[in-house]
Amino acid sequence: MVQKASPKLMGLLNEAIAREIQVSIQYMWQHVLWSGVKGFAVKDQIKKFAIDEMKHAEMIAERLNYFGGIPTTKPTPVFVGSTLKEMIEADKKDEEGAIALYKEILDLARQEGDDTTGHLFREILSQEEDHHDTFTTLLEDL
Hints:
The chain is mainly α. The protein has a single domain (7-140), classed as Ferritin, core subunit, four-helix bundle (Ferritin). It is built from 4 helices and no strands. It has helices at 7-33, 36-66, 84-111, 115-140. Helix 1 runs antiparallel to helix 2, helix 1 (7-33) runs antiparallel to helix 3 (84-111) and helix 2 packs antiparallel against helix 4. The longest helix is centred in the middle third of the chain and has 31 residues, at 36-66. The chain is elongated. The mean pLDDT is 94.
């Protein structure tokens, strides 16, 4: 028997996919565009984050597909920024939004008795908090 998810949970999963696609594009373009000593120091880490985010999108899409939903292909608006500080401030804010959304998904999954989605989002949330910590630390020196 296939587990069911509420329309609300399925909608939140699609919102999460859209955010993950957005930041994977955003971080990859930032990785390509960053320059100077400070940019050189962090660009490989940001490329890694871009790949992490795409993997998150894939895992969430697989979960949504399991429920019979159709994963979105549209990212939320991408903001690359024009200065290193502007980029990192936007990235920090995007991670804060993801953290809040994923806590909401965790709460709803718990209410629905969906341990698998809960496990998935606890794992992703941990990585998002690590990304947020990195961006917060980088802002200290800008």
